[in-house]
Amino acid sequence: MKIKSVRARVFQWKGKTVPPQGNFCSNAMDVLYAPQETMSTFRFHSWTVVEVETDDGIVGLGNVALAPQVAKLIIDEYLAPLVIGQDPWDYEYLNQRMYRATHAWGRKGIGMAAISAVDIAIWDVLGKSVGKPVFKLLGGRTKERIPCYYSKLYRTDLKAMQAEAQKFLDQGFRAFKMRFGYGPAHGQQGVVENLKSVEAVREVIGYDNDLMLECYMGWNVEYAKRILPKLEKFQPRWLEEPVIADDIDGYAELNRLTSIPISGGEHEFSLYGFKQLLDRKAVSVVQYDTNRVGGITMAHKINALCEAYSVPVIPHAGQMHNYHLTMSTLASPMSEYFPMFDVEVGNELFYYIFDGEPVAENGFLQLRDDVPGLGLKLKTEFLDQFEIVE
Ligand SMILES: [Mg+2]
Q1: CATH 3.90.180.10 corresponds to the domain 136-380
Q2: CATH code assigned to 3-131
Q3: Of residues 291, 335, 327, 319, the one with CA closest to residue 122
Q4: Which of 52, 148, 254, 378 is 20 to 30 A distant from 118 in Cα terms?
Q5: pLDDT value of residue 32
Q6: Into which family does the record put it (predicted)?
């Protein structure tokens, strides 16, 4: 079996969108002087879909959601020629080939995201070629089903957040991640608002369910030091990405300082990036994303690394490629789960592109033993609402 072609297309959503609410989530732009930029930069309405086809007609699907137009260009210009004509079973060689050939400019960020998409598609091919789900090629089933946490609760009106938490509590979720709306630029009033929102969600879900707190890089070390002691009484399971991804010392300092586990990694790349985070005890929960980190080949290695460091790994963003790794990894206790909503930030866009994403039941996800590959197909239902760039 040889790889015959690699096709990368950008799916740009043109359908209905829900405008983001006021301070729906803090982010890395918040410290800049032009606050009007902050929320508008925080949207992902395009996706790159990669199809790797073999000479015996198997088509594997991969995807990447960071800077999709650039990812497509990298795949077309640099990566496709490196894998076409090759045996997909040489996946380690192919992953290294893509990683090393683009190392001068691609080893972090969009270069790795593009590699990830091709690698994921190759794994889909492998599963399909032997009639096995991908998780069976990675170690198989380590859990009966995957516990997942409800991930949304953007910062809006507190009553609306409480109603949202109640709705998904009633659906059987036992873990919830909420977003902070305020950062350093909002001063002490923002601190108060942040604390109020945590209190409001705890009021609904109680203390026998897990609560995760998301900063999306919208704070800095000084601000985090001020607010963390006040958050401890709410017993969060973790506090996510308090500072920008490059501030590893900042993560390490905060992780030493507080009893709240600091989590991160959705903006980190490669095996080496995660070794650094773990060596420096910068995070207590690792949250790589398979379609950023270097694909399934790389994520599988990071899982092993996390196991050896006794740090749980809970991939970012839900999605099939992450679920297969979570299912096959003892070090991975649960998955993030974004339910399907109207298109808003874009975290939900993959539901509009792919068929086959599992739907949570009572806070659990299931992967089927009898569906080969990743178990995804391109969806036709919303096709006319995308502009597709070949
Ligand atoms: Mg996050």
Answers
A1: no
A2: 3.30.390.10
A3: 291
A4: 148
A5: 77
A6: Belongs to the mandelate racemase/muconate lactonizing enzyme family. RhamD subfamily.
Centroid of ligand 1 to alpha carbon of 262 (angstroms): 12
Average pLDDT, the chain: 95
| Whole-angstrom distance, CA of residue 326 vs CA of residue 141 | 9
- Tens-digit pLDDT profile for residues 42-51: 778 999 999 9
Res 31: pLDDT = 79
Distance CA 334, CA 175 (A): 10
User: Start-end ranges of CATH 3.30.390.10 in the chain?
Assistant: 3-131
State in Å, rounded, how far the first CA of the chain is from the last one: 26
Residues 6+ apart with CB under 8 A from 36: none
8 Å CB contact between 93 and 341: no
Distances in Å between the Cα of 272 and the Cα atoms of 68, 85, 223, 279 are 24, 29, 29, 10
- List, for residues 118-141, the tens digit of each pLDDT value: 999 999 999 999 999 999 999 999
DSSP strand pairing (364-365 vs 146-151): antiparallel
Kindly give, in sequence order, each residue whose CB lies less than 8 Å from that of residue 259, ignoring residues fewer than 6 positions away.
232
Flag whether the pTM goes above 0.85: yes
In the chain, residues under CATH classification 3.20.20.120 are 136-380
Residue found by looking up tokens 């509590």 in the block: 169
Check: CB of residue 7 under 8 Å from CB of residue 51: yes
Report CA(179)–ligand 1 centroid distance (Å): 9
Nearest Cα to 165, choosing from 196, 208, 211? Answer: 211
Could you tell me the distance, in angstroms and rounded to a whole number, from the CA of residue 316 to the centre of ligand 1? 6
Distance separating alpha carbons of residues 243 and 180, to the nearest angstrom:
13
Q: State in Å: Cα 261 to ligand 1 middle.
A: 14
- Please compute the mean of the pLDDT values over residues 360-371 and round it to a whole number: 98
Flag whether pLDDT at 193 surpasses 60.
Answer: yes
pLDDT at residue 191 greater than cutoff 60: yes
Taking residues 80-89, what's their average pLDDT? 98
Q: Which two tokens stand for residue 24?
A: 């729906």
pLDDT score for 52: 98
